[in-house]
Fold this protein.
Amino acid sequence: MGLTFKTIEVLSFRRRLFLLFFVICLALAGAIPMAKMLSHDGWTTLKVSFFGLFLLLQMQVAFGFAGALIGWVVLRFGRDPIGINRESVTSETPTEFPAVAIVMPIYNEEVSRIFQGLRIVYESLEKTGRGEAFDFFILSDSSDLNCWIAEEEAWFELCKQVHGFGRIFYRKRRVQLHNKSGNIADFCRRWGASYRYMIVLDADSVMTGASLVQLTTLMEQNPRVGIIQTSPRPILGQSLFQRIEQFAACIYRPVFAAGANFWQLGDATFWGHNAILRLKPFMRYCAMPELPEIGPLGKRVLSHDTIEAALIRREGYQVWQAYDMEGSYEESPPHLLASLQRDRRWCHGNLQHLWFLFERRLKTVSRFNILNGIMAYASAPLWLLSLILGALLTMDDHEGVIGGTSGMLNPGFVPGALYAYILCLLLLPKVLGAMILMRSPEKLKLCGGIIKVALGVAAETLHSIFMAPILMLFYTRFVLATFSGSEVRWGQQIRSGAEGPGWSTWIVTHGANFIFTLAAMAMVLWLSPSMVPWLLPVLAGPLLAVPLSRITASVNLGRKAKSKKWFLIPEESAPPDELAALEEPFVAPQNALINSRDYARDFGLLQAVLDPYINAIHVSLLRLRSETSLRTRDHMPALADRFLLDGPFGLTVAEKRILLWDAETMLAMHQTLWNSPASRLHDWWQTAFRGYVESRALSIRRTASF
Amino acid sequence: MKLFFPTTGSEAEWNAAYYRLEDYFRALRLVNKVHQSQVILRLLESAAVRHAQDPSQNPTALAMEEARVMMDRWFADVFGQRERLNVVGLISLLAVDAPERWPLAFPCGEIPAELRQDLRESDVRAGPDLLMSSMTPRPIDVGALLEPISLSNTWEKARRGLAILMVVILACASIYFLLLVK
């Protein structure tokens, strides 16, 4: 980077001081007129509470705006001279490349998509000529037995297709301790010492070979850097919801990311994937501690990435965001419900980070990053509270001094200029993002042209106005649920078709918020009808949430939007080779029996017992029993007999899992099954024999060369 | 032409054994029907000899056992004797696409040199050699700030307190609204 560690520290301090001053100025510009208005006829407890909240939330809004504005200046008037990705590395790639592990923790994900993504990354890496330095690890925590066997089969097939045996590895954990962070820690304990760096990918991540080589080179050139996080772009949006999300990320994220880099520099945060980590310090300092067992935020940390960044930073290693690095992609949730499911987990995880605000020796900026993550969710109840307090204030305003007859959101209460100012802070970053895009005619064309971009920004803004109160209500529920110690139950993963989840799912999802909003509107209508128009932007979202969610979840509408060049991103207009290949399915041998209703549920177990190759692959991935207890020696054959003689119907999922984990039993069952005359087996097996083998033979005949 | 005439066992039993072997070889992706039939006949003959010695055994089981013996012999010829020979052999066969590329070589017959080499060089491993190291978490140190709440039941008390407080706030808010309406 051409700058010393010390210089960066000094620059960081100055930039943060400037940002703080800027944010305070922006917040005061809104707070002072508000204070004048509130103090008109003296201060009351209600007014002080409202003003306190207003100031806090105004600071948050001002912080977002300041970041975007600084980002805009950086991008508009030339690149920031300080950044991890500043210097071209192609001419300086080290001759001796260090060993790098690319790890992908997975959990019941779509197998075809995982392995197609991995194939693309592998092949892209091979093209760089540096492929040999990289090993791939698929770290499975899948609890679904079908998924498990399908992953093993796909791993083998992938290795065959790309000649990746000895370079692509598959590991299934027996005990899913501490979820993803536990899975990564397990990898580190087993193989971490063999590698200098680890690149973490999510199941839906794709990174180009060039970006992986570039990340590794940057780490080699900067030995004091512990983590480099890329800024993955959402891609492959099918539903309208995804398309809007990816369009928003494409247009607005660059200004926010450049702004964040301006003040974060070597104190950036880690998002858990599409990033490279220096393994030695990571293993030494970043193991996740157990939290004190007090209240609902105790025990194990659910969300580990921000904390890992803070822990490695505490030991003097920098954390950078390569915000302008190309070739890093991810997919976004297909609809609002999937996004909320993810938010529920993140909310719990981020709120747990409250503990780390008090952890000794953490850097102030790391604490701020942690606080920022907490506020992403904790601000929702504060917004709701400020709305309620604002409504109470207006109703209390008998003299009409503050609110007149129109309420708190009325320009009479918040003068027109202040109203416009707050809107400006909220919405101007979107315009700034669009302005940056419009400076690049080529990119603008790839996004569908100036009119489509302008209309897209307008539509996205409208969508986000509707979404903001919906998310506020959900996040408030999540925060309350987290603190009350109760779990939000989402039931099974929703298998949605081209139209997304059905109406009933959306009605159940939004029902409580709808009733709450309707009641609030009825109360406002009763007490102060003139307030309703001013509260409409807040009320409309939750009231229209059901049709809005249903419409945006539609894949058909998403496709239509794409064909009409709405919410288009450059990665769609001119996709890099890697992304073009991602839309093709991963080709693996398919057996038609999986589509049979009688066999679909236990297809994985069926394959692992019946198919000689899949049985061999599965057994080869299991450890041999070192010693067998008497209990196991009696129990396993009895369980196996039940499975063969009675079919899978009498076995629980736990019993099927026990069978699958035992190599000797799997081998014995395979042998017994094939040795047994059909008459001695359960009907389920008799049909399976012919059905499975016939389907396999047909698929072979179709691909056979003669 | 040599015909298969078992001296013991019923026609139905030997047909069932034939079908089972046929299914097994299909599952092994042996696509050459002529080769498959020849191998099946050889196996049935060996099974028939054993069945004549012990008619209590089932022909299907005997035929499958003979198939496994034949495969193990073939694998041992390539890899030598080793642990889990059958497992190693099968995944190596699949890794190099042996049934498709050398349809006449498995599970009996002469092993082409190229196939032998490919099988031996196939490196099917789930993971590299372990190099165990530690990754021990350091306990979280929140300092003296939160010590007062470390009493085990403090949170429960606080929760009850919060619940009561919420009820009081709601009650006050309701009274306040009623007064406003008046």
User: Anything to note?
Assistant: Chain A touches chain B through 69 residues (CB under 8 Å). Residues 90-238+266-373 of chain A form a domain with the Spore Coat Polysaccharide Biosynthesis Protein SpsA; Chain A fold (CATH 3.90.550.10). Residues 201 and 274 of chain A are 5 Å apart (CA to CA).
